[in-house]
Design brief:
The protein is an alpha/beta fold.
Length: about 140
């Protein structure tokens, strides 16, 4: 039985954010910042920035040298199959497409790789509604 979005977030420590934004007014800027405040480790993925949320930015998931629990996607649905392939290649446990993002192909890739999968939901909303916080390390 697939895990719920709540269960996925509760078992997550490190989140790679594909489409992390320099603009705090965009969801790709505000949501990761909020998750970081809740104690999640954020690894930003953005080809045009050097540092976001006080963390080093990577150009793609394939460059990340750390273990990633969850890949949180703030990119158009057309980009998600390739992101799913990269998430599978780095051994991520889950792929999460943010609000209004859906992809049957990304779902298929994630499920074939054994990843948990969420689409069309906001990580910040799920974390807030379920009062999910990570202990300070």
């Amino acid at each position: 039985m697939p895990k719920s979005s709540r269960e996925i977030l509760e078992s997550t420590t490190t989140i790679a954010v594909v489409g992390a934004s320099r603009d705090p007014a965009k969801a790709g800027g505000s949501v990761p910042a909020g998750l970081q405040q809740r104690g999640f480790r954020i690894i930003p993925i953005n080809p045009y920035a050097e540092t976001l949320f006080g963390e080093r930015v990577y150009r793609s998931l394939l460059e990340v040298p750390h273990k990633v629990d969850l890949v949180d996607v703030f990119r158009p649905a057309t980009d998600t199959p390739e992101i799913a392939r990269q998430a599978a290649a780095i051994g991520a446990r889950a792929l999460w497409l943010q609000l209004d993002i859906r992809s049957e192909e990304a779902r298929r890739i994630a499920e074939e790789a054994g990843m948990d999968y969420v689409e069309d939901e906001c990580t910040a909303v799920v974390a807030s509604l379920n009062r999910i916080r990570k202990p300070a390390s």
